[in-house]
Amino acid sequence: MNKPVFRYFQCMIVLGLSIYLADKWTNGQLYYYINMRFALITLIGCLGLAVMAVIGLIPLFTPEQAALSPQSKPQKRKTNLAVIFLLPIAIAVLGLPEPYIWIAFVFVFFIGLMRVSQFQVGQYHLSDIPAVALVILAIPLLLGTFVPVRPLSTSSLSTRGMGLSAPASIGQQSVQTMEIAPDDRTVLDWIKIFNYNTDLSSYLGKSANVIGFVYHDPRLKTGQFMVGRFAITCCVADAFAIGMAVDWPDSTNLVDNSWVDVKGAVDVVTIDGQKVPLIHAQGVNPVQAPDQPYLYP
Q1: Which residues does residue 213 pair with via DSSP β-bridges, in sequence order?
Q2: What is d(CA 232, CA 241) in angstroms, rounded to the nearest whole number?
Q3: Are 18 and 139 contacting, i.e. CB atoms less than 8 angstroms apart?
Q4: Largest CB tally within 10 Å, which of 7, 114, 139, 226?
């Protein structure tokens, strides 16, 4: 493979990574990986990758200029085709369906490849690039593109377990949690209240209405289950599962990882020596998983 084509593949992989991030940002799947507060940083990184790719492509589409020495008389610059590689990113940012994005990427990829492959190695002054670098660079893009995007499920609890406490780092938010109407509190809100308040009398008997996945925790009694959510403070690597115990006679008929809407009065139960919220359910109704299944402290 000659150097121009090799450099072209390198730039297209970087461009592909930018397109991938832009697509995940617009369709909301980015938040399967990171906390929502880092979305702007990711968008800046996406734009940075796009700029890097286009800057790398510009000399490949102006071989006459790249071949000139500093003493050579400048020639009239031709219209640069590198800007057409921004088309797939524009489609991704506009939120169009994913097939259109990758069709546009393949289209501009082959247009550029046909032109670059015609150039001679001598027209460029490019340093040697190890082939292994190209492979390593392509791995994240291939994994992200072909591995289906799925949020965490109860299958990961075998290693992570179901937590009963919110991290100490988010304990200061409990004041704002107390101001939320009881029916609007999430699983995480109720956990924070029980973790960071010594007097729970004002919360017992209050109505709760929470959505979460079903998990049959072995620490609970027969006729009880956990309604849980995963929370992300930074990225999915530090995700933790938290849950509220639910008292429901038909709990054995519920399937782990199915999503339910639980309504009922709040009580307290002790698990592993810790006081945690318990819902005496008046209704447990199946629901679809939320578009954003995670909670973000």
Answers
A1: 228, 259
A2: 9
A3: no
A4: 226
Q: Do residues 269 and 182 make contact, with C-beta atoms less than 8 angstroms apart?
A: no
Work out the pLDDT band at 255, boundaries 50, 70, 90.
very high
Residue ranges, CATH 2.40.50, the chain: 154-286
Instruction: Say yes or no to pLDDT of 73 above 70.
Output: no
State the Cα angle at 44 between 105 and 150, rounded to 5°: 65
Start-to-end CA span in the chain (Å): 50
Assess contact for 234 and 41: CB atoms under 8 A: no
Highest mean pLDDT: which range of 156-160, 182-186, 287-291: 287-291
* Residue 126 clears pLDDT 70, i.e. is over it: no
**CA Rg value for the chain:** 27
Which fold does the domain 154-286 belong to in CATH?
OB fold (Dihydrolipoamide Acetyltransferase, E2P) (2.40.50)
CA–CA distances in Å: residue 291 to residues 94, 132, 186, 236 = 19, 38, 15, 16
In whole angstroms, give the CA distance from residue 60 to residue 25: 30
pTM score, two decimals? 0.74
